[in-house]
Amino acid sequence: MLKTLLKYEWKDTWGLCTACNGIALILSVIGALMISLWHYSDDKTFTDTQTTMLGVAFSFYIIIYIVSVFAVVLVMKYYFFVRYYKNLFTDQGYLMHTLPVKSTDLINSKLIIAVLWQFITGIVVGICIVIIVFSFADIFGELSIMDFKEAFHDIEMEFDEIVKGVPLIASGIISGLVTPIFEILLMYMAVGIGQQSKKNRLFLSVMVLIGLYVGKRFISSCLSVPLQMLLINEDVSLTAVNVGAVLVVLAIIAMTVGLYFLNKYFLEKKLNLE
Amino acid sequence: METNNTYGQPPVGQMPMGQPPMGQPMQGQMPMGQPPMGGMPMYGYPPMGRPMPQLIVEPMPKLENGPSLLECRNLTKSYVYGRNALDHLNLTIEKGHIVGLLGPNGSGKTTLIKIINGLLVPTEGEVLINGQKPGAYTKSVVSYLPERTYLEAQKDVKSLVEFFADFYQDFRKERAYDMLQALGVPLDARLKTLSKGTKEKVQLILVMSRDAQLYVLDEPIAGVDPAARDYILRTILSNYNSEATIMICTHLIYDIENILDDVVFIKNGRLVVQSTAQNIRNKFGKSVDMYFREVFAC
User: Fold this and answer.
1) Distance between CA A188 and CA A190 in Å, rounded?
2) Which of A34, A190, B198, B292 could disulfide-pair with A208, CB 3.0 to 4.6 Å?
């Protein structure tokens, strides 16, 4: 049944998520075109007034662009938060919770699709940044693909000097993969807590989510600051840095697993569709 | 269609809908204020402060060995902010009956139905369906019609049929399409474009197109016109598997009492009456509707 749930979850989320990502991409392309126009204005194609107007429009656009890309990321997060709430804890929950599926299937289907869209959005935002950065490279003539390659090579060389071990890099990759799952589960947890209330459940869920985010920030600071101290301290051995990184990732994984089971507990033992 | 009627009650369908049981006056024939059996007036009877009615529990006979279709053991649901919605309720329902789950507002009917369907978790006690606690298996044999619109308003009727067909193995797609066609519901119409009555009919069609073992219908005829009520009752009677049990929760007892084999009265979360509809008529000399008014008089 998980496959069927995934099919419907994908079908239901496809429209809005594609639209959001599509808008971000279109805005990037428009931005790149505007940057090119601005570039041409330097070649005296336009009058001074036109160049000034273009400059103002360009600056305005860049602000809108940055806000829009952030908005896309936020809308996507909020959408999956509200969708989980609406789909499982409002009238629609009467259907979803009477389907012959396990509660874990309900969580898994929503989690997998939400995480998948988070990754897709991450990639799209990355593409948007690359488009804009390369448009600027055209103007300033200082950036090219070769420059990027060299920059990455330099980082790589320096990185090799600091750490020659795989664990730190692997920890970084794993935490990059696990963190979106953790964040989605944190949202689900907020909904689970919020629906215990008799009224204003969505508002309470949002408040709980804000509280959980503050808690998350505090814990992640507690975990990452010592690791950064280790990284900049030349006296500390590579092994210690690696061990620190692995411990941080293990803590993230443990918290993610804990959140998963807490969400399962809320669906199975604390379901409250009054 | 005949039901597994074990109490000598006329088979469902032989008693015309809208007619009172034999020997009973039509509703409205007895003037308000007249005593049902002579003596006290019908409305306002029994007098204020009357204790809970005597518990009448006549267990349903079992048709086969094995676990009962539905068993509630010591079922209690307390809310943190209020009283007990269910209070140590014990109830057993067997296969092949049409049961009316009746009680005044706030008596715990909907809470009981939600617990049966796994939408609420009991505070104490347990509910078993074919011997199993609510879960994926029980949801595959229970077909539930909530008292609200629970389908996504944005979806069209056809995609809702496909949704049910994908999830419920006992769903009969052809049956659903036949009923929708008979009603003239356009398959490509989004649910939000349909009238309230049509939405309720679509929901009922989806629920009754399953070959479930237990149908739980919460207020299936509330909020629709009398013609639609007849359609809904006909749909219920003509589409359920005769070995299955239908549990109907409603306030409109008069409209459904002719199709009921059994009645269950709940008051303050407790079982007050469980009996056959016929026994109520024979024993108290009044219709279930009238008996209900007597038991739950304010």
Assistant:
1) 5
2) A190
